[in-house]
């Protein structure tokens, strides 16, 4: 029987899970026997059709560090990002496809079965472009039967972790929880209300915050800089030259994380870096490590406080803090949060909870096949569509995974550029923290007019923007455009200074769709705008689809 899996596509490590026939959530080991897979890719310079993914990628690329790419999750949906290897250019989406391809290949072999589809997680703080890029990467993965992977949904990581936590609890409870999710490359903070009463389990997301450029990698870099400073002080080497040396950087990439992990359980650790024909044993104490990374922890506290403040909440509204993400294993995290907030702090499978929650959600989906006839060619073919097994709930009915009702929210605000008082402004039609799926209409605010001469016009320009604001009318410079500005062409000219209405919809994946209605003719135009990242996402996407993963 084909399996439905959950995938935590992490910045530094990825993890897979599924719900077995007894309703128990199981982690899927990769082919190396590990429960997590490093999100690292090495493009073999001697074989353009081959990519090494996972644990062996770093060692395989020891002589060619320029061919190693990692932490691409930080650049999902970023139109300015590219990775060059062996004369080819790759987007973060293309690299993520290779990571997902490795995960799916390993899952097929470990489970001995086909993969029906997957729920893939992303940071709650991801915007529309990054979510779409994640979905695209998953849909570009090839299954062993030659078809493409069905992506059931894109799920926020803190929500997935909360689902796994809620599923593990047997006692009844009503709590407001703060999920503090510090991963390898991203930080999310989310407030949720959870209500668990027997088989009646409900979770409502209240608000989210964070920074998808802050994570354990920053602790790694701070530790690496401390080691470099001590090494150069002892040897007289130039620290800037050492930082610029590719071989030295490759050594730090392979060794610094292990040193950080040692400091989670020991008072000190030592490393033996070498540079410019010099080698030195460098000892680092946990106190030194915590001192050089204290400002990073301060940033997470500021982000939590800012999220609460914008929502009109305080820590008095929070009953419990739940730690998620491998980087929360650092003792300094619990120590700092306890000192700051004096709240109950719980840990539940920090490395695996996100994948486990995603698997629980995946168990509530299926793929329905039906035969459809092409209207042009008359050809009849099979069409596979994703469907929910039980409307309004996440988890398959009849097993412990079922019965968890989750009320998710939109994590960004989406609006239009308009003219207000002769100044360009953004009118948000869908506000951050609105329940998903969400709908917004300009007619709920004030009339939108086609500006300019009353003479007939044939098109109108629409610019859609994304922001973190909770206000309806905001300054243009506080927003980011997510679509390329393109004119919407009318079918025939319509009067200028004529009212139009714009409708926005956000689906459960956080993907946006738009339509515009001309009030004169009543004609509705369903817009298919180009994302700012659409073209960039395609770089290398076809090339990786045919690569051999080793």
How would you describe what is shown here?
There is one protein chain. By secondary structure, this protein is of the alpha+beta class. It folds into four domains: 3-159 and 358-406, ATPase, nucleotide binding domain (Nucleotidyltransferase, domain 5, 2-Layer Sandwich), CATH 3.30.420.40; 171-211 and 300-344, ATPase, nucleotide binding domain (Nucleotidyltransferase, domain 5), CATH 3.30.420; 216-292, Alpha-Beta Complex (Actin, Chain A, domain 4); 413-507, no CATH class. The protein is 27% helix and 35% strand. Strands 1, 2, 3, 4, 10 and 11 form a six-stranded mixed β-sheet that branches. α4 (157-168) crosses α10 (353-362) and α5 crosses α7 (246-262). The radius of gyration is 25 Å and the shape is globular. The two termini are 26 Å apart. Residues 391-402 have low confidence and may be disordered.
In short:
The chain has 550 residues and is α+β, with helices and mostly antiparallel strands. The protein has 12 helices and 36 strands.
Please tag this protein with its features:
single chain; 550 residues; alpha+beta; Nucleotidyltransferase, domain 5; Actin, Chain A, domain 4; 4 domains; 6-stranded mixed sheet; 12 helices; globular
Note the topology.
Blueprint: E1 3-8, E2 13-19, E3 25-27, E4 36-38, E5 40-43, E6 50-53, H1 55-60, E7 68-70, E8 83-85, E9 88-90, H2 92-111, E10 115-122, H3 128-139, E11 151-156, H4 157-168, E12 173-182, E13 187-197, E14 200-211, H5 216-235, H6 239-244, H7 246-262, E15 268-271, E16 274-275, E17 278-279, E18 282-285, H8 286-310, E19 320-324, H9 331-341, E20 344-347, H10 353-362, E21 365-373, E22 380-388, E23 404-407, E24 413-420, E25 423-430, E26 438-441, E27 448-449, E28 457-462, E29 464-467, E30 473-475, E31 480-481, E32 486-494, E33 499-506, E34 512-518, E35 524-527, H11 534-537, H12 541-545, E36 548-549
Parallel strand pairs: 1-10, 6-36, 10-11, 12-19, 14-23, 19-20
Antiparallel strand pairs: 1-2, 2-3, 2-4, 5-6, 5-7, 8-9, 12-13, 13-14, 15-18, 16-17, 21-22, 24-25, 24-29, 25-30, 26-33, 27-33, 28-32, 29-31, 33-34, 34-35
